[in-house]
Every structure is written in structure tokens, then in C-alpha cells.
């Protein structure tokens, strides 16, 4: 997937922006018409779209609406049409930002960087929970310790996530078992004990001297951030 889909029918400006964005560290697919842009979009897509309003055939507003039918990708309009009505039409079509021509390349780069950060980096931070040296990616349901991925089963992940949400609290065995396996599950409590041991073997630096998950004998378990 390319970083940017750049749709600009003026060939010289197209190549100028394309080269500038590539030198700024982005991968770019350029298109000279709305039809070409949508053909690429249907096959490959991109992480951000820069879209001229005045295009041959389908104009930028129509292309934007077509993209919005399937994606909330960050989208920046470029246009020499700077009137209030044109800008309002752009935002109503689904644009995230609207930039006037002639294009100031430094401003373009700043807008692209801001949109990328707002949509991707801040979104990623919200789905990643830090618990000591553990990082839990709640979207991908993956766990990392000091940047190294730990391979967990579904039940191990669910147990860890429940523990991480309750640091420093003693969670009773019955509570944990009911939350993960369900109150109507016919499995025995030994199932929980076995899964907690396997989880500890994977996330503890020294499973024989656990610091993250500690057993409270006869009651349950307590999780500490390490």
C-alpha cells in the first residue's frame, strides 16, 4: 500500500508534488484523472489521498464521495477555487482539509504530516496499553515485552487483559473463571490454574520467582505492573 494517492491533472505540478513528497519520505502513487485514481483505489488503496477539485471527467468532489463510500482515509483537497461555497462543498463531500493553490510545499508537507499523525499515530496509541514493560495491542490482540512479541493463546490473552485492567487487586478464581470461560462452562477450575501457569511461564522474566502474577493461596491471583 502506498502512503499517498496524489490526484492532480496538471502534469508539471503533479510531478513537482510527487517528487517533493517522496523526498519527504512518503511513497506516492500519482494519477491524472478521477477515473485513474478510483481504478487504483479499488485495487490497492493508500494511507492518505491528496485530491484536486478540478479534474477532467469526474471532479474531485465526486471522487471524494466515491472513496468515502468505503473508507475514512485522511483526504486533503487542493484547489484554486477558494470561495467559501467551494470549501464547504469539499468538507461536505468528506474532506479532512482544504488547501488553496498555488501550493506551498512546506505547508503541504505540514498538513500531510498532521493528518497522518491524527489518523494513524494517535489512533495506534489509543489501542496500545502500557503495563510496566508489557505492551498490549488491543486491536490486534497481541502482547509485547520490551518490544518483543509474546505468543499467547486466546484464553491467555483474555486472562492477561483482565488482570492488566485490575492491577494490584486480588481477583478471585471464581471471578476469573466466570469472566473467561463463562458461568455455565462445565470445565473444572484446574483449567484456570493450568492457563495461569502457562501465562506466567510466558510473561515472567523468571517464572520460578513471579513478579507480575502472584498466587493468593485459596483465593485467586493478583497482578502487579513490572
What overall form do the CA principal axes indicate?
elongated
The helical percent reads 40-55%
- Give the uncertain stretches in residue-range form: none
* Structural class by helix and strand composition: alpha/beta
Number of DSSP strand runs: 12
Question: Largest sheet, order of strands side by side?
Answer: 2-1-3-4-5
Query: Helix and strand succession?
Result: EHEHEHEHEHEEEEHEHHEE
Mean pLDDT, as a whole number? 90
- With helices defined by DSSP (H or I, 4 residues minimum), what is the helix count? 8
Largest sheet data: 5 strands, parallel
The Rg value, from CA coordinates, equals 25 Å
Span between termini: 37 Å
Strand share of the residues? 15-25%
Please describe what this structure looks like.
With 226 residues, the chain is α/β, with parallel strands linked by helices. Helices cover 44% and strands 23% of the residues. The strands form three sheets. It has a five-stranded parallel beta sheet, sandwiched between helices. Helix 3 (60-68) links the parallel strand 3 (46-52) and strand 4. Helix 2 (34-43) runs parallel beside helix 3. The radius of gyration is 25 Å and the shape is elongated. The two termini are 37 Å apart. The mean pLDDT is 90.
Amino acid at each position: 500500500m502506498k502512503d499517498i494517492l496524489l490526484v492532480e491533472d496538471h502534469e508539471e505540478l503533479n510531478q513537482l508534488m510527487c517528487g517533493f513528497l517522496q523526498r519527504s519520505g512518503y511513497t506516492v502513487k500519482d494519477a491524472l484523472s478521477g477515473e485513474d485514481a478510483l481504478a487504483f483505489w479499488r485495487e490497492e488503496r493508500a494511507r492518505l489521498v491528496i485530491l484536486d477539485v478540478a479534474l477532467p471527467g469526474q471532479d474531485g468532489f465526486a471522487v471524494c464521495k466515491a472513496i468515502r463510500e468505503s473508507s475514512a482515509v485522511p483526504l486533503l483537497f487542493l484547489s484554486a477555487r477558494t470561495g467559501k461555497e467551494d470549501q464547504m462543498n469539499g468538507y461536505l463531500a468528506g474532506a479532512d482539509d482544504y488547501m488553496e493553490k498555488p501550493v506551498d510545499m512546506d505547508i503541504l508537507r505540514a498538513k500531510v504530516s498532521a493528518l497522518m499523525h491524527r489518523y494513524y499515530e494517535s489512533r495506534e496509541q489509543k489501542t496500545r496499553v502500557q503495563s510496566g514493560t508489557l505492551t498490549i495491542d488491543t486491536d490486534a490482540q497481541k502482547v509485547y515485552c520490551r518490544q518483543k512479541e509474546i505468543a499467547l493463546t486466546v484464553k491467555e490473552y483474555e486472562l492477561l487483559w483482565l488482570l492488566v485492567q485490575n492491577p494490584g487487586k486480588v481477583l478471585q478464581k471464581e471471578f476469573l473463571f466466570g469472566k473467561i470461560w463463562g458461568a455455565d462452562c462445565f470445565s473444572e477450575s484446574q483449567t484456570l490454574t493450568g492457563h495461569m501457569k502457562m501465562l506466567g511461564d510466558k510473561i515472567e522474566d523468571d517464572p520460578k520467582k513471579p513478579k507480575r502474577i502472584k498466587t493468593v493461596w485459596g483465593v485467586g491471583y493478583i497482578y502487579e505492573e513490572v
